[in-house]
């Protein structure tokens, strides 16, 4: 009996998770229609993708037995403590798997136990963001993940309307499914909860580079044991989010997810400019311009700017100048160093007018004439100084 229920839960989880949360749907000019389900089929659907772990909080209710019910927090060792059952290891289970497990555990003490579970607190979400982002690494995307109670009556009405006996009440807070809405903060919100998305992960990694290909973003996720275990993967066209507002490509992230952003062999300047108009990436960057410019030093300019624009913001070139020396330190440990003649009308992303990244160094070299004048000044400066001292001494003599 337990195995049959477990298989039903696994089937429901796979049916829901795959098409809605971890598979990008192709664009269509026709309005998509929800699958036709009977009332009984709808009552049996369990949106069960979330995998439990230390830090999660649950309301566990054994119907008509409040003394065996209560609120629990999964401890660092992955266990919960319940009256009569004592300590139980639950880490790695989904909510539906936990409901079935507790039903079997209560069966020796209760006739026909009916168990309901509702998540009330979600643990911090930690994901890895890799690939072509400015700062790859592990990031904590936690927000206020404790369920805010609306009111006893409203909350009970909502639960009764979205849950049926024999299904997990916790399903209403899972993605996919549930009453979710997109908030201005970039995360998915359900009854006051904030859930991080792919957008939040890329922004936490300090945004994109000129070589980032947002049309090829990959998310890898741990799969529940009842669904076969291992990991599942999806490819997202995240560029459509910032170009057409396609929210289906901005899926919710779970603890342990891996987000990988592809690298383009060429600079995608239009994409960089479009992303710079959003809060996905910092609006401005800083580069360093030195040499034969009027105002050498650090220059702050918008994302997607080119070398010529940086020199213009540094006051432009002086009358006599030589070639441009461009230096970029790549993440791979290599140095991109170029020396070329300055051309103010070179198109953006040309070899002589590259699209800049934060930290780039631009130096306008001396020309033969300006270098000669500089050397002459260095030679004559001591003599001029001595002559000036002599003139002052002569003037003060009576």
Structure report:
The protein is an alpha+beta fold. The protein folds into two domains: 2-27 and 37-234, no CATH class; 284-366, Roll (Outer membrane lipoprotein wza fold like), CATH 3.10.560.10. The protein is built from nine helices and 18 strands. The protein has helices spanning 2-20, 39-44, 95-106, 152-162, 198-204, 239-244, 269-276, 307-313, 368-396; strands spanning 57-62, 70-73, 79-82, 86-89, 115-121, 126-131, 137-140, 181-182, 188-190, 193-195, 212-222, 231-236, 258-263, 284-291, 297-302, 324-329, 335-340, 361-364. Strands 7-6-13-11-12 form a five-stranded mixed sheet, covered by helices on one side. Helix 1 (2-20) packs antiparallel against helix 3. The radius of gyration is 31 Å and the shape is elongated. Residues 48-118 form the Polysaccharide export protein N-terminal domain. Keywords: Signal. Residues 287-331 form the Soluble ligand binding domain. Residues 1-24 form the signal peptide.
Layout of SSEs?
Elements: H1 2-20, H2 39-44, E1 57-62, E2 70-73, E3 79-82, E4 86-89, H3 95-106, E5 115-121, E6 126-131, E7 137-140, H4 152-162, E8 181-182, E9 188-190, E10 193-195, H5 198-204, E11 212-222, E12 231-236, H6 239-244, E13 258-263, H7 269-276, E14 284-291, E15 297-302, H8 307-313, E16 324-329, E17 335-340, E18 361-364, H9 368-396
Parallel strand pairs: 6-13, 14-18
Antiparallel strand pairs: 1-2, 1-5, 3-4, 6-7, 8-9, 9-10, 11-12, 11-13, 14-15, 16-17, 16-18
Helix pairs in contact: 1-3
InterPro entries: Poly_export, Poly_export_N, Soluble_ligand-bd
Domain Soluble ligand binding: 287-331
Organism: Parasynechococcus marenigrum (strain WH8102)
